[in-house]
Please model this.
Amino acid sequence: MQLSVNKQIIGWSTLFQLVVSGVLLSVLWIGSANAGPVETFQFKDEATKLRFQILSKELRCPKCQNQNLADSNSKIAVDLRKNLYSLLQEGKSDQEIIDFMVYRYGDFVLYRPQLKKQTYILWFGPVVIILGFALGLIFVLRKRSKGKANEDNLSSEEQANLDDILNKK
Model:
């Protein structure tokens, strides 16, 4: 009896140590979150600040797969935000800034790529795939329903054979 009680105490103390260690490690891990410096830009007026916010949300970070410049913390996104700020301070229009970014980084930098010859597949590819799938599905269903209609119509000889088989049981 004494031996089983000691084993149970050892088991509980080991479990307690593991739980405490896990909690301490998770607190240390959470505390070491990587927080980058917050950029503070001084704008001439509220309209320029609003343009900066809109453009930084419309332009995609070239390094990140699906983050805009406003949400990304990558070095290239920080650099592009600084570049965007300087272009706005120079008095460039939104279209001039977008053209500059597309010239430098390609259409990937735009969340909504412009409709042109090189981007037709981006705009019309999904529609073509969905239509092709729908047409294929219609074709298969019609073919299957015609096949079932032919199976339902038995010749008189086949019907007689079927009746004989069913009557034997």
About this structure: The chain has a mean pLDDT of 81. The longest helix spans residues 120-152.
